[in-house]
Design brief:
Elements (H helix, E strand, L loop, with lengths): L1 H5 L4 H14 L6 H41 L17 H8 L9 E2 L5 H4 L6 E2 L3 H7 L14 H15 L11 E6 L5 H12 L4 E4 L10 H20 L5 E4 L1 H5 L9 H15 L21 E5 L15 E6 L3 H12 L6 H10 L5 H10 L2 H10 L6 H5 L18 H20 L2 H5 L6
Parallel strand pairs: 3-6, 3-7, 4-5, 5-6
Antiparallel strand pairs: 1-2
Length: 441
């Protein structure tokens, strides 16, 4: 019994004991020995099976590590490298991709979710974010503004005529050119009309009509035109393409140079006017590729500087905007109404400063805020602590309350005289002649 117990933990003697157990089992005199040895034998076999499982588990872990090493491209692979946020290179590639192809979409399950995104649910539109940046909404226009009836009739009629052009048995110009003096509210009045009508326009600037790449501005206009068409088709909203201050980008002033991009932009606008439903951005022509007719609205100060065939009557309907006295009084009164200025006081202001553009009366009101702003700067710690007070304050720290100035007729007159003096000084003082007295006129 002692001999058996001493060697029960040894694999070497386990084999001899197992053979002895077999021999003992044949003899009836060792039944008690057999019972003990059988229990010991079962314990030793359990320990051996546990050891075998440990060895198998170690082999599985080793094999998994080997498989991982085999799947990994290399120790220095940039495709599997992680950034500070734990994102790999493919995530960065998908996030920074500038795919503006409006003909395709990202469908969940077809391409990687990294590229599809989840902000639209199962399916996402690749151009959605781009379209939201291009189209303009007018939630910021809060308040009650005055829209001149003549201006409104012209813009509304142009948009509706182009929307039902297929029903009319007449030639409908695609472009409405609104031109007139500086600061008369051409763009602002148009935006107010868009807000009233529920139009979601694509608005461009004259600064986008030139590029270091030849043909880029013309392609941009065609892309924006097609995006406005997508707004009509996919969102069920009215849309249009608006280009502000077009004469600043296409007009010829003095000896300014005509560039290839200027020619392509003019040619693009002329082609849109002649073929408003067939617009290509470089893809192959297809019979089913029919674009919605999108009205164009352009603003400017002097259309006589633009290439004449573009502004001919068949392509562009021209509207000269010069507000009359009644329009000016109504617009300025709505501007000052929230300040408690009566209509009679507005009449006295307009009569005191006649022949001024509408933006003059807006600047006049803005200048009355200067003293209140200077006082507010002193309240937050003065000029020396201005940066800390405005930008480096704590999240729970609030700025001092800005008290709006009380508008009075005397304060408005004071601001108006100051602006008028600066205008006169600007026109009379020509420093270029002062600097070059030795050059004859």
């Amino acid at each position: 019994m002692a001999l058996f117990c001493n060697f029960s933990n040894s694999q070497l003697h386990y084999r001899s004991l197992s053979s002895r157990y077999c021999s003992f089992s044949k003899s009836p005199n060792f039944s008690k020995k057999i019972s003990v040895s059988s229990s010991s034998f079962s314990l030793s076999s359990l320990s051996i099976s546990n050891q075998n499982e440990d060895i198998n588990n170690k082999d599985d872990i080793t094999e998994s590590n080997v498989s991982k090493k085999k799947n990994k491209l290399s120790e220095q692979s940039s495709w599997e490298a992680k950034d500070s946020e734990g994102k790999d290179y493919l995530y960065r590639l998908g996030k920074e991709a500038d795919n503006m192809n409006i003909a395709v979409g990202a469908r969940a399950g077809v391409i990687d979710d990294v590229f599809a995104g989840n902000f639209l649910g199962r399916d996402s539109d690749i151009v959605f974010d781009y379209r939201q940046k291009v189209t303009r909404s007018f939630e910021y226009l809060q308040g009650d503004y005055y829209i001149a009836p003549v201006f409104m009739d012209k813009v509304v009629c142009h948009i509706v005529k182009n929307c039902i052009a297929h029903l009319l048995n007449t030639k409908v110009p695609l472009i409405l050119g609104i031109w007139g003096g500086k600061g008369q509210g051409k763009s602002f009045q148009t935006e107010l009309i868009f807000q009233v009508m529920g139009v979601e326009p694509v608005i461009m600037s004259a600064g986008e009509l030139e590029s270091e790449r030849a043909g880029e501005p013309g392609k941009l206009i065609r892309e924006r035109y097609r995006i406005a068409s997508q707004v009509v088709q996919n969102q069920g909203k009215m849309s249009c393409l608006m280009i502000n201050d077009i004469d600043a980008g296409l007009g010829r002033f003095g000896n300014t140079q005509m560039t290839v991009n200027n020619q392509i932009v003019v040619g693009t606008l002329m082609n849109l006017s002649d073929n408003p439903t067939r617009v290509s951005i470089g893809q192959e022509w297809r019979e089913s590729d029919v674009t919605n007719r999108i009205p164009l609205i352009v603003t400017g100060n002097d259309f006589s500087t633009i290439y004449a065939p573009l502004i001919r009557d068949g392509r562009m309907e021209k509207f000269y905007w010069q507000p009359n006295l009644e329009d000016i009084l109504n617009i300025v009164h709505r501007m000052y109404e929230k300040d408690g200025i009566s209509r009679d006081e507005v009449v006295s202001i307009v009569n005191t400063f006649p022949n001024q553009a509408l933006d003059f009366y807006g600047a006049l009101r803005s200048r009355t805020y200067d003293r209140s702003i200077l006082k507010w700067i002193d309240d937050i710690g003065g000029i020396e602590n201005l940066g800390n007070g405005l930008l480096k304050r704590r999240k729970d720290e609030k700025l001092p309350v800005f008290t709006l100035p009380k508008q009075t007729l005397e304060a408005l007159f004071e601001s108006g005289y100051s602006l008028q003096k600066e205008q006169k000084l600007m026109m009379e003082t020509k420093l270029s002649k002062e600097y070059m007295k030795n050059i004859d006129d």
